[in-house]
Design brief:
2 domains; two-stranded antiparallel sheet; about 40% helix; globular; single chain; 5 helices; alpha+beta
Length: about 190
C-alpha cells in the first residue's frame, strides 16, 4: 500500500489494521493474531523454564545436610562452656535449609541458659555453610540421651528467652533468617 494511501477496508468497513492484518515491507499480508498467539506460547514456555530453573537454583544454593552436621555443632560447642552437647534436625524447601537445634546444658539456670542460648544461636547462624531459612532452638539438661526425641525432654525456655530478649512460643525459640540477620548481622559465606 502506498504511503499516505487510506487503509483498505472490507465489506463491513473495517480496515485491515482493525482486523489484525498487517503488511510487511514486501506487501505480504500477515495475520497478527496468529503471530501473537505463537509469541504468547513462547513467553509461557520461557516463564515455566525460568520458574523451574529459579526453584532448582534456590534449592541448589543450600548446603547439604552433611556440611551443616560438620560445621554447626562444632561452632555451637565452642560458643560456651555450659553447652555440653547438641542435636540437629533439618528441614529443606525451595528457599533453602533450616534447622532445629537442641542444646544440652550443664547449668539450666535462667542466666546461664540465656547466655548459652544467645551464644549458640549466633554461632549456629554464622557457622552455617549456607544461610539458614531459620533456626528453631530448645534446651534440655545434659547429658544427651542415646536416642533423642524432640517432642520430649526439653525444659522450660520462657524465662531464659525473656532474659536473652528472644521471642518464644510453645517452649521453643524460632528466628527466621531476617531475624537472625537483624540480631547477629548478615550471614556471609566464609568457605
Amino acid at each position: 500500500m502506498p504511503t499516505g494511501a487510506p487503509p483498505r477496508r472490507n465489506a463491513a468497513g473495517r480496515s485491515s489494521a482493525a482486523r489484525g492484518i498487517r503488511a510487511d515491507r514486501n506487501g505480504a499480508a500477515r495475520n497478527c493474531a496468529d503471530r501473537s498467539s505463537a509469541a504468547r506460547g513462547i513467553r509461557s514456555l520461557v516463564a515455566v523454564v525460568v520458574v523451574a530453573t529459579g526453584t532448582l537454583g534456590l534449592t541448589a544454593c543450600a548446603a547439604d545436610q552433611g556440611a551443616f552436621e560438620k560445621a554447626v555443632p562444632a561452632a555451637v560447642l565452642a560458643a560456651g562452656p555450659n553447652i555440653a552437647d547438641t542435636y540437629l534436625s533439618f528441614s529443606s524447601g525451595p528457599a533453602g535449609r533450616g534447622f532445629w537445634l537442641r542444646l544440652y546444658l550443664d547449668d539450666t539456670g535462667v542466666e546461664a541458659s540465656a547466655e548459652s542460648i544467645d551464644a549458640a544461636l549466633e554461632a549456629a547462624y554464622l557457622a552455617s555453610p549456607s544461610e539458614p531459612t531459620g533456626i528453631t532452638l530448645d534446651i534440655a539438661a545434659a547429658p544427651k540421651p542415646d536416642e533423642v526425641e524432640l517432642t520430649t525432654g526439653s525444659i522450660p525456655i520462657e524465662d531464659a528467652a525473656d532474659e536473652a530478649g528472644l521471642p518464644w512460643a510453645d517452649n521453643e525459640i524460632h528466628l527466621s533468617s531476617a531475624a537472625l540477620d537483624e540480631r547477629y548481622g548478615p550471614w556471609q559465606e566464609t568457605r
